[in-house]
Write a structure and sequence with these properties.
Number of strands: 0
CATH superfamily of the largest domain: Tetracycline Repressor, domain 2
Region (Disordered): 1-21
Distance between the termini: 65 Å
Order of helices and strands: HHHHHHHHHH
Shape: elongated
Pfam family, one: TetR_C_38
Domain HTH tetR-type: 20-80
Largest sheet: none
Oligomer: single chain
Number of helices: 10
DNA-binding region: 43-62
Radius of gyration: 21 Å
Protein name: TetR family transcriptional regulator
Strand content: under 5%
Length: 221
């Protein structure tokens, strides 16, 4: 069964303000529980107990737990206004480091604020659930297109090889950022040779180079 729209419940009835609040509560509670419980282990009773409601009420709005997680995931956007503005701003050889670090930090801030849901969505997508694949694609499309535009501009100006496929390059940058977000806590706390600060800096270097502005060593003669 397809997801009910935000205006309709599972019976096709128009939701009033109380119904919208109840649906919102179920989504928010599910997201909170996903911080400690994997999606495959989360049960309707867990959600209804935490939301102080009943299973009967749950099924007015959703068929199952997957649909709640999907509805929550559809609200995610990795293409935030802040990161799009950074990508679309003017990049130069002089400011490419700062721009790239700013881009990384905007991305990581959003990931950190939505860590549990982002992890849940991406795992479901990686396992081949087409519904989660589609909501992820919707989330990343504006950011991918902004990066593609930046890379194509660099190609026209001779700063990036024409052999580079812009969509693949943008996708690779996004893949890197997603893994950095997913592993931020690992690199920040493992006390190993590789630190999170080093990974953040490496990501910035990669992004700047992808946009045709490789970061220069200030100490170079």
């Amino acid at each position: 069964m397809t997801l009910a729209t935000p205006e309709l419940n599972q019976s096709g009835q128009m939701m009033g303000s109380k119904g919208r609040r109840t649906r919102r509560k179920l989504i928010d509670t599910t997201v909170e529980l996903l911080a400690t419980t994997p999606l495959r282990d989360l049960k309707v009773v867990d959600i209804t107990q935490a939301a102080s409601t009943s299973a009967a009420t749950f099924y007015v709005y959703f068929d199952n737990v997957i649909e709640v997680a999907l509805a929550a995931s559809a609200e995610l956007t990795q293409s935030t206004p802040e990161i799009i503005a950074t990508v679309n701003s003017e990049w130069t050889r002089a400011n490419s480091h700062d721009r790239a670090v700013e881009m990384v930090d905007h991305y990581l801030a959003y990931w950190g604020a939505h860590r549990a849901l982002m992890r849940t969505r991406n795992l479901a997508a990686e396992e081949g659930d087409i519904r989660f694949i589609r909501v992820r694609e919707e989330s990343i499309r504006p950011l991918i297109l902004a990066m593609v535009h930046k890379i194509e501009l660099a190609q026209r100006e001779g700063r990036v090889s024409r052999r580079v496929f812009p969509y693949a390059s943008g996708g690779t940058v996004l893949m890197m950022l997603e893994r950095l977000g997913a592993l931020a806590r690992v690199y920040d706390s493992n006390g190993g040779v590789i630190t999170f600060a080093q990974m953040r800096e490496a990501a910035a270097h990669t992004i700047a180079a992808s946009f045709g502005w490789p970061i220069q060593d200030d100490t170079a003669g």
